Amino acid sequence: MPFVGKCSFFRSPQNLAMGRGLGYCDLDGDQAICDGDVQFCKDRETLRKHLLEQKSKEGSNNKREEEQKKKPSYKVLVVDDEEAMRKMMFTLLSKLGYQCITASNGIEALNQINQNKFDAVVTDIVMPEMDGIALTKEIMILYPNLPIMVMTGYSKEYSAESAIAAGARDFIKKPFSIDEFSLRLNKMMRDYEILFQIEARQNEIEAKQNEMVTHLNKTSSGEMDTLKREIEILKTRLSSVYT
Question: Which of 37-51, 86-100, 114-128, 220-234 has the lowest mean pLDDT?
Answer without folding.
Answer: 37-51
